[in-house]
Write a structure and sequence with these properties.
- It is a single chain.
- This protein is an alpha/beta fold.
- It contains six helices and five strands.
- It has a five-stranded parallel beta sheet with strand order 2-1-3-4-5.
- β4, α4 and β5 form a beta-alpha-beta unit.
- α1 runs parallel beside α5 and α5 packs across α6.
- The radius of gyration is 17 Å and the shape is globular.
- The structure holds 5-O-phosphono-beta-D-ribofuranose (RP5).
- The site of 5-O-phosphono-beta-D-ribofuranose has 10 residues, from β3.
């Protein structure tokens, strides 16, 4: 199976990124994690993206806050699918990062999840790999069913909580 590459702009993003690594671990999807910044280590970020396909990655996830150019900078250097996680914090509590991540120019797409949406980033990355992986697709289907069962259990018990 191809690996998922997870890049964060700073180790201060790790508590958010952990939700992605936990999800991938649960699904049995291999991943590699790095701290590369679009601004502080632009050469390393670029080189990682340039070599990612050759190094066995299938999807890349980039998490960053504030002037969050990391996902875009990664996407500029690869045609692998790139998923951006805008991280909360900064002057506008994440709106700055959300817009920096989502507002990509035509030709360089970044699939942007919600603020701090690391679990969904991991799920989306897994769903992309599952296009060509029946076993992984089954795990994702099973998870959907299990998640739905939890909601229905809550539905059954909601009246008792009023
Ligand atoms: C971004 O700036 C990082 O992704 C992080 O979310 C934010 C703050 O970084 P630190 O100052 O905590 O290293 O580049």
């Amino acid at each position: 199976m191809k690996k998922i590459g997870i890049i964060m702009g700073s180790d201060s993003d790790l508590p958010i990124v952990k939700k992605a690594t936990d999800m991938l671990t649960t699904l049995g999807v291999p991943y590699e994690v790095h701290v590369y910044s679009a601004h502080r280590t632009p050469v390393e970020a670029r080189d990682f993206a340039l070599n990612a396909r050759e190094n066995g990655f299938g999807v890349l996830i980039a998490a960053a806050g504030m002037a969050a150019h990391l996902a875009g900078a990664i996407a500029a250097n690869t045609t692998l699918p790139v998923i951006g996680i805008p991280c909360k914090g900064g002057m506008m509590d994440g709106l700055d990062a959300l817009l920096s991540t989502v507002q990509m120019p035509t030709g360089i797409p970044v699939a942007t999840v919600a603020l701090n949406g690391a679990a969904n980033a991991a799920l989306l990355a897994a769903q992309i790999l599952a296009v060509e992986d029946k076993e992984l697709a089954k795990k994702l289907d099973d998870k959907r069913r299990a998640d739905a069962a939890v909601v229905l259990e809550k539905d059954a018990g909601i009246a008792d909580r009023l």
